[in-house]
Design brief:
Elements: H1 2-12, H2 32-44, H3 50-61, H4 67-72, E1 83-84, E2 87-88, H5 89-105, H6 110-114, H7 119-129, H8 137-142, H9 153-163, H10 187-195, H11 206-217, H12 228-239
Antiparallel strand pairs: 1-2
């Protein structure tokens, strides 16, 4: 199984992966803060039909010269008609406002925010506690609470982008180890994992994330999440 997964990882972890994935947006930028802000926003919108959320992200990042400029001057951009499924313009504005607080007012960063033992609660609590619309469906959907046993797929995907290095991932966060990452569990990864008998749990929740990540550590304890490429890539290909 390790040989099979390693072969599939080599097949799918290539630069060509970028063009159809939301990771394409942080790849448009060079500065660390632009890469992580673009990556964070892109990961939060990465649900539903791929072509639709990529179109929305393409529009959003076209408004400013850089993601840092977008959060710094978010009030000057017309976002009144912005909507993507559950996420309305007020949810997006709140997201940009809180990122502005994090970087401009607090003089901190997403890396510092995520660099915590209880990182998922730390991140979600920061955004909820600083929000004026934390009861809105769209805002709540962007920041699923760990206490609800969510798989936290989008946050785990964002962490993979920032922590791992390679042809696709950036590896710009040095404060978090690759061995600490958890698998971004979506329907494609879950289906292939069960077909390969890597995952027994039937629900796609946080317990399944931990179970699958522990199993993948048997094949590479230092970088188990590299197999996300194998499982996701094969899942997409076999779906087609």
């Amino acid at each position: 199984m390790k040989n099979k997964l390693d072969e599939l990882t080599k097949k799918y972890e290539i630069k060509d992966f970028i063009k159809n994935d939301p990771i394409q947006f942080p790849h448009k930028f060079k500065r660390k803060e632009d890469v992580e802000i673009a990556g964070f926003i892109s990961s939060l919108f990465a649900f539903g039909r791929r072509e639709l959320f990529i179109k929305k992200l393409d529009y959003l990042f076209s408004l400013a010269n850089s993601p840092f400029e977008l959060i710094n001057d978010f009030r000057k951009y017309n976002l009144d008609n912005f909507i993507y499924r559950f996420i309305k313009n007020e949810d997006l504005i709140e997201l940009l406002r809180i990122l502005n607080k994090l970087y401009i007012q607090d003089k901190s960063s997403l890396e510092e925010l995520f660099n915590s033992k209880d990182r998922f609660n730390t991140v979600t609590n920061y955004f909820y506690n600083n929000s004026n619309c934390s009861q809105n469906l769209g805002f709540c959907f962007m920041f699923a609470k760990p206490s609800n046993n969510s798989a936290l797929k989008r946050l785990n995907m964002f962490l993979r982008w920032m922590v791992r290095e390679g042809q696709v991932d950036f590896g710009i966060w040095k404060s978090i180890k690759k061995s600490e990452l958890l698998i971004p569990l979506d329907t494609h990864v879950a289906r292939i994992s069960r077909e390969f008998n890597l995952l027994k749990r039937k629900q796609n929740d946080f317990r399944a994330v931990l179970e699958l990540t522990d199993k993948l550590k048997e094949f590479d304890e230092n970088d188990p999440v590299k197999y996300d490429f194998a499982l996701f890539g094969l899942g997409i290909e076999t779906k087609k």
